[in-house]
Amino acid sequence: MMHKVILTRSPEDIERDRELFEREGLGVIALPLIKTAPIDFEPIDETFDFVIFQSAKAVKYFFEKAKLRGNEKIIVVGEAVKKAVESYGYKVYQIPEKYYAQEIKLLMEKEKRGKVLLPRSQEGREELIRWLRDMGFSVYPLNVYTTEHILYEREDFLKRLSAGEFIFFASPSAVKGFFANLPKPEGTKLLKKKKIVCIGKTTKEELTSLSGLSCLLPEKQSVESAVSLIKSLASRLH
Q: What DSSP line would sit under 79-125, residue for residue?
């Protein structure tokens, strides 16, 4: 029996991740709940000491319109973001051991204060900006893309949702997108029937905040680690 996983990222991310799941014998149900689009931003004419990227999307949309001088200390969250930065020819200065905003805060506490550029989603969370400013850094948030929810006809949404045993959330935005399509209490009731995997702590917190539900976390905050976890869970269901 093939166990099926509902993937909820953007359409292009699902197509890229599909191979990872199918290679491990897991079926994929595409239920994209978010889509991203670039924002027509103006690069900030400043010299920065640090640049922090929290997503591969932020890397993509930033470098499509802007360049760095090359002497900035680039800090990234996660291996996928590191690879994205390196694909544009830049070196990564540091990557936190755990892929959470709190870990960036701990890392930055050891650095000399200076100017920080933060390319981000327009809908991004504000905690890191606040923490860095409280620590004495000059922070320049730069919205380089926007994230929107994908809304479905109810029948289509329920059909896709019913087709998988596992559901994988890779961002807080995808969790919000789920409840934009199926508000509580119905959304919570149907999610309870699934084995829920969240990519990391921030996504888990969003799920708990909106529904009161919890989820399983992979060892690392990566799709590859999530695949390993789901494969392990699926093997126990036979």
A: HHHHHHHHHTT----B--SS-SHHHHHHHHTTSPP-EEEEEEETT--
Task: Report pLDDT digits (tens) over 170-190.
Answer: 999 999 999 999 999 999 999
Report, in this order, helix, strand and coil percent for the chain, each rounded to 5: 40, 20, 40
Instruction: Give the side-chain half-sphere CA count within 13 A for 159.
Output: 5
**pLDDT at site 78:** 82
- pLDDT (tens digit per residue) in 207-219: 999 999 999 999 9
Pinpoint the alpha helices (H) of the chain. Answer: 11-23, 56-63, 79-87, 101-108, 127-134, 154-162, 172-181, 186-191, 201-211, 223-235
With tokens 């960036």, the residue in question is 104
Domains and their CATH numbers in the chain: 4-33+150-235 (3.40.50.10090), 37-146 (3.40.50.10090)
Q: How far is CA 34 from CA 48, 143, 172, in A?
A: 31, 17, 10
Classify the phi-psi angles of 30: left when phi > 0, otherwise alpha if psi is within -120 to 50, otherwise beta: beta
Q: How many CB atoms lie within 10 A of CB 99?
A: 22
Residue 24 burial (CB count, 10 A): 16
Task: Give 11-51 pLDDT, tens digit per residue.
Answer: 999 999 999 999 999 999 999 999 999 999 998 989 999 99
Q: Around Cβ 18, how many Cβ atoms within 10 Å?
A: 16
Proportion of the chain above pLDDT 90, given as a percent: 84
